[in-house]
Amino acid sequence: MRIIVAGGDGFCGWPTALYLSKRGHDVAIIDNMIRREMDNELHSNSLTPIASLEERAAKWEELTGKEIRTYDGDLNHYDFLRQVLKTEQPDAFVHFAEQRSAPYSMIDREHAVFTQTNNVAGNLNVLYGIKEIVPDCHLIKLGTMGEYGTPNIPIEEGYIEIEHKGRKDVLPYPKQPGSFYHLSKVHDSHNITFACKIWGIRATDLNQGVVYGLETEETKMDPLLTNRLDYDGVFGTAFNRFIIQAAIGHDLTVYGKGGQTRGFLNIEDTVRCIEIAAENPADKGEFRVFNQFTEEFSVGDLAEKVKKVAHEEGFETDIAHLENPRVELEEHFFQAENTKLRDLGLEPHLLDDNVIREILHTVVQHKDRVIKENVMPQVSWK
Ligand code: NAD
Ligand code: USQ
């Protein structure tokens, strides 16, 4: 298949592009490098040193003989996007290219407005581009489990059957997101639902949980192919942050009580889920929703798991319960469906001590790059 990976310079996008290329797909990347600019804005960095996208793609071609074409540009520049779609004629458009940090979206008005403009308008451009230029192309859109929030009933995959005043219907599952970033994903989902209905676009919304790990078989092939790894209080995510904190002897930063429970998955499963979605496209006019995570954990449990392995490896670390900078439930019911991707063939990489140990060993090699002032959370929801 001809596949565009938008956001293909990022944490999920880069390993996905390599994986799809390795599996024989013809891959092109769109990215405007804004994530690298945000590192500069935040005086932060990836824990791992990352090569430029051109260097990465050239190394991949040298090692495998497979070309990944790269387009440096913004989804919000519609003429640019149209041109790429005309040139590439993709069968699938994998859309990772959004501002993805909840704390970044909560810094102030400017960052909230940027997040929603970049994400919602960018996605709308993709929908128009597909309608206008490649109407059969399958949109594979990265959503988030956080669209659902933490309701006191089980979470379904996108839709719920409701009986009300003696009548029944299957309706979109209620959304109660917890940041202006998570809200941008809800707005995207609504726009895609509508576009599928009126134009007959085929789309899959992948409501992904929190991704952990960094390496895949492909990124390990050469240091120039290494994936980025975020650890700061803005872009770092819970589990990866805990492992890096253990490596540098920092207390593990559990926010509040630590009962916040989320869906998690290994980056090695992210890349496979995208392949599964691409190879099993939605029907024309169908807006399909998959919950993309493999296991549920509370952040407190994850911190305990990291602490245990870190101790075994000789790293002394404690768990700190910080005042929660976010507004969220710290103890709640959480039970979410995730059978659709498994039914299509996903065989999860589950979390065990060896997985934690392996990530810890990778992280330790780069621990001197950590900018310590960036580890504590600095963005408040209030
Ligand atoms: P990332 O920030 O590492 O990568 C996103 C990439 O998109 C960056 O390289 C950035 O430069 C690019 N980009 C952003 N806006 C763009 C635009 N307007 N035009 C072109 N390029 C643009 O993020 P990630 O962790 O790889 O996440 C990828 C996607 O997966 C996001 O949509 C995110 O919401 C979703 N997701 C991520 C996680 C996670 O744990 N990382 C979990 C669930 C969902
Ligand atoms: N948390 C801590 N300590 C930390 C960091 C986070 O306790 O040091 C807590 C948060 O308060 C929250 C939970 O861990 O309750 C998850 O936070 P996170 O920063 O790991 O993840 P989140 O902000 O939800 O966002 C990340 C990605 C985002 C994606 C989302 C999937 O950045 O792109 O959409 O995970 S989900 O959470 O399922 O919506």
From TrEMBL:
The UniProt entry, under SUPFAM superfamilies, shows: NAD(P)-binding Rossmann-fold domains
Which residues are in the NAD-dependent epimerase/dehydratase domain? 3-291
Q: Which Gene3D superfamilies match?
A: NAD(P)-binding Rossmann-like Domain, UDP-galactose 4-epimerase, domain 1
UniProt record similarity statement: Belongs to the NAD(P)-dependent epimerase/dehydratase family.
This protein is called NAD-dependent epimerase/dehydratase family protein
Task: State the species of origin.
Answer: Lentibacillus juripiscarius
